[in-house]
Amino acid sequence: MAKPTEVEDLFTKIIRTEFSADRLHRYWWEAGWEERRPPMAMLALNPSKADEERSDPTVLRCVRRAMQLGCGRLIMLNAFSWRDTDPKALYAAKERVPRKEGPERDRVIEGNIARQRRHAAKLITTDTDRFIREAALLVAKTGGRFLVGWGTHVEEVMPGRSETLVDIIESAGATPEAIVINEGGSPKHPLYCSYKIKPVPFVLKESEDVGE
Q: Which of 42, 91, 129, 133 places its Cα 20 to 30 Å from the Cα of 147?
């Protein structure tokens, strides 16, 4: 068994985890400390090391955030359920694009786009969005909070993913909130946000710049 983590030090207990059968995807990580209080869901980028026995830096920061907001448990979700400690794993290898305009440059660009689309398809499964919706329904029913913080990578990895995520949350009756909104309109990752900042409603910009 893994050695006790700071989750226990914060008087919390890991109460539910959901993985794919091959454990390459993590859909749900939940810790609780006060059953009578509503949950806080956090939708970040992709899962790292947290599992049934341990947490990770992002999870710990979100536990503290949930406590600060008066919630009794944290449900950790992700825009991409693929487990990896490095966001670079979300990107396919790219062929170098020639500087000179012409058919060869167009071919390379088209090939890179197609390669990324194929790669992105493995980052989610049919269960990824199902669990996000389950959490949003629970938050709406219990009067909890639904924070989003997937950062700047989502639209580069899978164009249109941000809109899909917001639609899932709102259609379930929950209100997405962001701690900080980046210049390009994406919700800043929770690992890099001060506890002094209060979440605000998150509205997806129609002209959100890819990668900002």
A: 91
Q: DSSP 3-state helix, strand, coil percentages of the chain (rounded to 5)? A: 35, 20, 45
C-alpha atoms less than 13 angstroms from C-alpha of 68 in its C-beta half-sphere:
13
Which residue matches tokens 């949350």? 169
Q: Closest Cα partner for 188 from 197, 117, 27?
A: 197
Q: Is residue 212 part of a domain?
A: no
Average pLDDT per run of 10 along the chain, which is 212 residues long? 44 89 95 94 93 88 94 96 82 56 64 64 91 98 97 89 96 97 93 92 70 38
Please tell me what DSSP assigns to residue 123: S
pTM, to two decimals? 0.83
How far CA 6 is from CA of 3, 13, 155, in Å, comes to 10, 10, 33
Q: Count Cβ atoms below 10 Å from residue 139 Cβ, excluding itself.
A: 25
CA-closest candidate to residue 125, choices 83, 95, 87: 83
> Can you give the pLDDT at residue 49?
84
Does the residue 211 lie in any domain? Answer: no
Containing structural domain, residue 87: 6-201
pLDDT at 105: 62
What does the DSSP assignment read for 56-79? -HHHHHHHHHHHHTT-SEEEEEES
